[in-house]
């Protein structure tokens, strides 16, 4: 989680200046804030995250302690598939994360109905991924999103426009959930070869094979 520090500084002439830092990792920002306070010239101090949420030093310290016991360092993969003949879709997601100093992998899929295209299946797969992240308890931290649907990722990042109403509805729903969870998204388009796990799960969902599995990964895993 990155935050910027905002503090009111009292000059030697008793003038008040409101200063802000660049965005920094929260732990580093807390250390710097303590150094600022040692000057004896800080009147007020707070932290602002990338979703414009304001945190006190006490609140931010508490959040960082909670993070260790909650899912963090999250890398999330998604893929959607669609059969034009059967009109059957499938979503596959793979989530790697740390919790209590251990590394885990969650794999899940879902059949998708009432879709019109493969592109729509990709949006639905990303929405399914957001639901799984919410169930895991992921909130107020960066998440790396990876998938081979460059259209979905580029539209979510704002790099590409979306002109289709149906697709915009998916984007609005996804972005609303991201904001609700306080997630700081990092979008990383990858090749289909790099997305094999999620792709296989989506294909299995289309064939009627439902999978949900959690695995603790060893250092070699």
UniProtKB/TrEMBL annotation:
CDD domains: RNase_HI_like. It comes from the Bacteria. One of its GO terms (molecular function) is RNA-DNA hybrid ribonuclease activity. The keyword Hydrolase applies. Residues 70-207 form the RNase H type-1 domain. Keywords: Hydrolase. Its EC number is 3.1.26.4. It is an enzyme of class 3 (hydrolase). This is Ribonuclease HI. It comes from Parageobacillus toebii NBRC 107807. The lineage of its organism: Bacteria, Bacillati, Bacillota, Bacilli, Bacillales.
């Amino acid at each position: 989680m990155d935050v910027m520090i905002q503090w009111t500084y009292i000059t030697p002439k008793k003038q008040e200046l409101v200063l802000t830092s660049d965005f920094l990792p929260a732990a580093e920002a807390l250390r710097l804030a303590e150094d600022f306070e040692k000057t004896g010239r800080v009147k007020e101090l707070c932290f602002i995250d990338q979703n414009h949420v304001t945190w006190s030093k006490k609140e931010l310290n508490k959040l960082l302690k909670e993070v260790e016991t909650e899912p963090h360092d999250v890398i999330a993969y998604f893929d959607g598939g669609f059969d034009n003949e059967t009109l059957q879709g499938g979503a596959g997601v793979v989530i790697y994360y740390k919790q209590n100093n251990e590394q885990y992998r969650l794999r899940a899929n879902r059949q998708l109905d009432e879709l019109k295209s493969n592109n729509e299946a990709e949006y639905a797969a990303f929405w399914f991924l957001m639901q799984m992240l919410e169930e895991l308890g992921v909130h107020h931290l960066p998440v790396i999103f990876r998938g081979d649907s460059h259209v979905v990722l580029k539209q979510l990042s704002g790099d590409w426009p979306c002109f289709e109403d149906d697709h915009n509805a998916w984007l609005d729903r996804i972005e609303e959930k991201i904001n609700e969870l306080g997630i700081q998204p990092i979008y990383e388009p990858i090749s289909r070869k790099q997305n094999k796990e999620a792709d296989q799960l989506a294909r299995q969902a289309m064939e009627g094979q439902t999978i949900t599995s959690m695995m603790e990964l060893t250092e070699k895993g």
